[in-house]
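Retro notes
What went well: the complex prediction finally ran end to end.
Inputs used:
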Amino acid sequence: MPHQLICDLKDGANVQQYFMMRQAQSGTTKAGKPFFNLVLGDKSGLIKAKVWSDVLSKCPGPFPTGNHFFVQGQVESYQGEAQLKVGYIISVEDLRAQGKDLRNYDPDLLCQATPYDRQELWQELWQLAAEEIRPPLRELVLKVLDRYGEEFQVCPAALRYHHPYLGGLLEHTWFVARHALASLNLYGDLNRDLVLAGAILHDLGKIKELANPPAPERTVPGQLLGHVVLGWEMVRSEAQALEFSDPTLLVQLEHIILSHHGSMEFGSPILPKTREALLVNFLDDLDAKLKMMSQHLESDTGEGDFTAYNRALQRDLYKGGSAAAGDPEPDREIEP
Amino acid sequence: MPHQLICDLKDGANVQQYFMMRQAQSGTTKAGKPFFNLVLGDKSGLIKAKVWSDVLSKCPGPFPTGNHFFVQGQVESYQGEAQLKVGYIISVEDLRAQGKDLRNYDPDLLCQATPYDRQELWQELWQLAAEEIRPPLRELVLKVLDRYGEEFQVCPAALRYHHPYLGGLLEHTWFVARHALASLNLYGDLNRDLVLAGAILHDLGKIKELANPPAPERTVPGQLLGHVVLGWEMVRSEAQALEFSDPTLLVQLEHIILSHHGSMEFGSPILPKTREALLVNFLDDLDAKLKMMSQHLESDTGEGDFTAYNRALQRDLYKGGSAAAGDPEPDREIEP
Amino acid sequence: MPHQLICDLKDGANVQQYFMMRQAQSGTTKAGKPFFNLVLGDKSGLIKAKVWSDVLSKCPGPFPTGNHFFVQGQVESYQGEAQLKVGYIISVEDLRAQGKDLRNYDPDLLCQATPYDRQELWQELWQLAAEEIRPPLRELVLKVLDRYGEEFQVCPAALRYHHPYLGGLLEHTWFVARHALASLNLYGDLNRDLVLAGAILHDLGKIKELANPPAPERTVPGQLLGHVVLGWEMVRSEAQALEFSDPTLLVQLEHIILSHHGSMEFGSPILPKTREALLVNFLDDLDAKLKMMSQHLESDTGEGDFTAYNRALQRDLYKGGSAAAGDPEPDREIEP
Amino acid sequence: MPHQLICDLKDGANVQQYFMMRQAQSGTTKAGKPFFNLVLGDKSGLIKAKVWSDVLSKCPGPFPTGNHFFVQGQVESYQGEAQLKVGYIISVEDLRAQGKDLRNYDPDLLCQATPYDRQELWQELWQLAAEEIRPPLRELVLKVLDRYGEEFQVCPAALRYHHPYLGGLLEHTWFVARHALASLNLYGDLNRDLVLAGAILHDLGKIKELANPPAPERTVPGQLLGHVVLGWEMVRSEAQALEFSDPTLLVQLEHIILSHHGSMEFGSPILPKTREALLVNFLDDLDAKLKMMSQHLESDTGEGDFTAYNRALQRDLYKGGSAAAGDPEPDREIEP
Amino acid sequence: MPHQLICDLKDGANVQQYFMMRQAQSGTTKAGKPFFNLVLGDKSGLIKAKVWSDVLSKCPGPFPTGNHFFVQGQVESYQGEAQLKVGYIISVEDLRAQGKDLRNYDPDLLCQATPYDRQELWQELWQLAAEEIRPPLRELVLKVLDRYGEEFQVCPAALRYHHPYLGGLLEHTWFVARHALASLNLYGDLNRDLVLAGAILHDLGKIKELANPPAPERTVPGQLLGHVVLGWEMVRSEAQALEFSDPTLLVQLEHIILSHHGSMEFGSPILPKTREALLVNFLDDLDAKLKMMSQHLESDTGEGDFTAYNRALQRDLYKGGSAAAGDPEPDREIEP
Amino acid sequence: MPHQLICDLKDGANVQQYFMMRQAQSGTTKAGKPFFNLVLGDKSGLIKAKVWSDVLSKCPGPFPTGNHFFVQGQVESYQGEAQLKVGYIISVEDLRAQGKDLRNYDPDLLCQATPYDRQELWQELWQLAAEEIRPPLRELVLKVLDRYGEEFQVCPAALRYHHPYLGGLLEHTWFVARHALASLNLYGDLNRDLVLAGAILHDLGKIKELANPPAPERTVPGQLLGHVVLGWEMVRSEAQALEFSDPTLLVQLEHIILSHHGSMEFGSPILPKTREALLVNFLDDLDAKLKMMSQHLESDTGEGDFTAYNRALQRDLYKGGSAAAGDPEPDREIEP
């Protein structure tokens, strides 16, 4: 039986396949019996699951986050939400230890990730920096990309709000940078190098804010300092190491990173005071919000013309809004 | 003596040329003598002027707003601001009546206007609608453009904040529409027709909000109703007259117009609830803010690395921000 | 057994009577059995109900919203709230098809509606317009009332917050208009015609915002455009059709409608800039808030001197506040 | 020459009459000469005045606030505002000491005051309390009115915002109380005694907040404690002295007074938690805002359809709004 | 078996001991059986408890709030929270009536209270007033302390937010007053008497706002008037009774009490306008927030470096923050 | 003639002494004559000065900021503010070049500075760090103090709001650190080292935000990045250089610095999430606000019980508040 994507699981469906463990919490029923609330994931999303005591007795766990499990069960609807009632659950490690057949096990299916080819995105982003930015910012940007390339290609863009999956940071950055390139055609008197460098590096601090990309969580420095200043410091250090030649240019790039949230209420310690900073701030916010809207539209399975209320967006959304929801391939051929 | 642009007038300069009257207010000096505070304009901006009582006795006025005047005088600095001390002032009408030589009188120099060729902008905007939007929205947009074309080409985009000059609405709309076209290359799953129609029509109501483009002022309906709803009603009426075939599409276009201020605090009665509306909202706001920044940077003549505080933007601006301030020709050849 | 009003149902009560279906959602118990969460209504309010799987097997539904059902069951208290445990449920259509006795079936009992006589309210409102408003606004108001009379008499005033029932708009408008009439005795220099026309028409757009009065829901235009601008456009169109003679008067009436929410945060695109608009804004807000308080006081069944916290009002209420909660007959005889 | 009202003084007018000194501040001209900036008042309003050094030499002052002066001078327009250039100024005391003729001196003309007959207002307010409120609140209200009657009849309602003149508190209270009476006809299930007592006593604390009614200023307790709590304590003390019999009723009246500003941001330590408190809060706010609007419309002498921006109201006002601005006699005969 | 503190109860523990009843609410299971949700308390905190129908049949209650009960049961984890499944429950009264052995019954263990010795705190607070404040404020403060001493020593500082237990007001006041004493060493030009009197009396009104200290609830005056003004009035009355000699000093003390919430949004009708008032405002807020943090840290039993989100503080907290959470003895020997 | 302090200069006084140039701006009178608006300073404050054209002709300047000048002139009152009418002005350099007698020239008198002995403050601050903080934070703090000691001792605490003078940062830091030491006596379970290190280093970034301490101005990095993050980076770099041994401790210190403004609206990118951070945030804010109040009280020279409105504090202040305004020596002997 081929893997059924979580986003396609319907009430009543039978499931016999692999999942990634995303959360696991034990509990006790009113009748005093132990059970487990799980959150299982695959590349298409998340689903809650219950392991009742009768199943627990033969499948006692443990259920460490990030590990892969084979699960048998049935999909139920609970309070309007799909939920998996687990009949059997065992970790891939245990299966392997028991010498079981893992033919259908495909780890690539289990991890939520950007729908785009990460290598292509990365190459294009790197090339954009190499071709469109002039020295001395070009060197700085490439140096940073090279140093943090590995993390940059897997880091999510956020824990929950937008692009909360493997490669999300890269996808988000690609869109912001490409959009910036297009905007510069119209607003040609802006400093092109600053805008592009800012667009590429604005969210760099996410790399230190978030850990464990397949099942992301915030780090202690991420929660006590925040990605805005962490990213700023990473760029500043790199420039220092490079003995960056133009301090006036550098401080403007630093300003773009620090001010990219656009207002102090949203965690930037300073407002954008250059047009370059304003542009990056807008394109970042726009891409994040468009994605949040897409995500909310996709996740809404209810009837009616409007989604449920979305807290982060502080509104409900019209579901008839676009020809097609989802994330189509952007036109990658065009030279904007 | 050729016309000296107001933006180039320096302390001590002698002036012998034509201006448009933008404001005139009589007063009395501490010593009890009458005088006039004027605001004079040409295509490059505005300058305050004083007509003291000794001059008034030979040049008694009147000084109706919007009329053209020949002025002799000297530029002074008053509280850090250039000001014209008028030595002689007479209206073009009076000069003409006296059969005077008006050889140097060039009305085109006296009116603040978009730096772009309005006809070109208009043609390009019209073409964008004609070529990029599909029926049935194409018909609606072209019908609206045709009906309001004359006003659309002269109306300012605002009284003060951004593009506050003849053709400002057209310039602003051109940038928003072209930017939208570029953005659609990236966000290809948005409804292209809605985005472009919304981008072109979002500020249509300015035409009824503002009167007298060369020396703009708000109309009574503009102040009691506002351009957001006025523009919505103009499009809705036009669609009704056209017996627009797709009510679901129409209500989404109407939604884009009503929600384009992005939040209720800023005068939209509704938040953007589609991604198309969100995109138009962002591109509109971005163009307006970038222009406000450019205008503030250009008008700042002080020393130091930062401008004076700008109330509307709620910040001061860094003056070293771009290679060159001002409004360079955007790259008009490119096909984004 | 006569109909017991929902507001009077107490823990333990046996129920054998008709209800209107207001909501129906299927679910699955922890033990994997299907059930239905219903919301049933009658003229006195709403009650949640459960149909467990054993009952479902003999009463499989469907349970379409707005339809009438005969229900047997028992009232339980669940988390401090009354809830009906359904023993048997069948639609009136099915009963009729089975040729069953429908003697006790009284559809008038099943629909939540204004406690006042709608015909009387309507007649008085119409008369108020006819007698107290002078031409040319009199003609406009009466024309609008005549055209939308049917919907006006059944439309709720809101989905949830205040007067959320059949005839709610009429009841609310009657109170605001009568209050306005009384206020004009004190503030005699206001434009009487504008205040009364504004009071009567301020919420007209609700007719297009809300559909299906007995079980109300928001329309797509209602959610994408909002009742404030919809009502404005309805009046403006009507005036245009009438070739309304006094544009200055008309724009002030339009202003009252657009600004009646009193602030931009609350969805008016413009602030009240006339005293007439301010008065209508206050009387509308006051009637809505007093009604919300009454509704909250009535619905609170807990002990103690204060109600639970009310989100919309952002406060709890003192329950000892009035001689008697509820909606007594206002003094209809008086000529204010 | 009869007294010309300040509100009627026009540019160029000659003045020979009495004024009340409202403010006096000495200064030095750029040329080093002393002068005085005065604010003079009569019953119709305030006017700024200048006493230059040549006049000062013969009219050296002093110019104590609240005193009456005979002034000769000429009205000028300074920055669009009428201003009196003083030619001669002498106090009534000095004139009297010099045995001068004071035939034209009428102190009643010099003090800004409510346009209504204060005795009539007072009598009607007292009667309203005596006839419309039932015991035990009747006794409490009358006791308070009797004890503070003298101050109540002269106190302004505010220093600047609304009714800032002799008798302003009484006028404001009369309107709020009469409006409350009318509102109770519609909202008949409210506690009538509480609403009326609250309406009459809500601003009682102004009496301790403001001193010197003809030329009002804030007291130290007024600025350190505020009228809201001062008025509450005055009523509470009086009730204690009366051994008020119904503590539940009393605490609700106290609540109305403390919450009458309607929100904590506006200085009420508590939100209105009863419908009675909400009604008084709305009628108070409405009367204050309508008056502020009237005052602003009256004081605006500029051209155009809209007034200048009013800070307290945070808007400009439409000047074509009412048949007639100003304060017509409310219909005092009617029994609402 | 000695009393196990609630804060130490772990999943699976058996319990045979006394508790205070803090809340009791009856319910019905899905299967239609009655049960009780209880909240039980001891000196270390609160725990939820369930009494299912089988137990109820032999232990029918009633369960009045504030009474003491002997309970047998077992601790379970429900949704991550410890909960007691009651096997047997009987009131101390019934045990006594049955002549049962109450050897292990220690009422002192059952009431949540300040960890400090209340008598010591009280003595030190009184002494601080007696030794550090000079006349005439000394007399006033001591008079107030003496009159309200009994309530002051048991009253909580709040219902929920901080120090929500017996003696909480005293503990909070002790810290604020001692901190004020230390601060005065640095800010020596402040009026020492005012600061100390204000620190001691700022929350006096809690005594009238909250009733029944062992199981606190808000009074009607507390909810309709609030502790800020209640406390102010208590001090003002006392001063009046004392014929307090210095009205200027008194009004400043009154101002400190009224303004101690620091802003109008937080319920002070006036902002601190003296440095003394500002200091008391800060020290009060600081002690409350530090305590809220301590309480939240202590109550958090989850894993991870950060607590759950705390609504009142609007943040989550870092759990590695201090050497040790909890409430150590402050250094009581030191003379700050 | 000895130096008269600016704060003591009264209307009419003759002046013959030295000042520091703080600002200089040229202008033209209405009569077309050039003049200079100056701001002159000494250790006690600032005074505006005018150099009219007749004086300019003999004293042509230039007037570079920060330089010292000898000035003859007379104090006038202009719009209620003291102003110096300059009769003669010459720079100390020119005097020296002319070989003039500079006997009365004392540069120490000309610079606004903390009233405390900077060396003593510095020594005590250093000692506090050395004695009260334990390793490893002790080393880090001392290392930072040593490296930035020179700037730390002269830097102002702000440009305008509080301690805007030479040594202001040191004075402010001394108070916050000493206050923290005292607070730790009460809140003994806080991490003492973190609190003290945070108190000492919280405003370190001011050193890079502000330049030219005697006549301070903001730097470009100061305006584009802000002192909050600049200070954080300075400490972080230093710790890196030191190979600081305890990363968990370090990140908490960094958190204190980044969060010390207490809220995002005030420019901290993160809220205080530890009690240590909260304490430093409060003590910093308290010292700044107390100082702002003192400064405003001192600068107010008007009559009446209340100062003029202070924008930064958003209130007026009571002037009878303290025994004595001003900055008395804090009790330096005490061991808190």
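What we learned: Strands of chain A lie at 14-28, 34-42, 45-51, 68-78, 81-91, 210-211, 217-218.
What to try next: split runs per interface for comparison.
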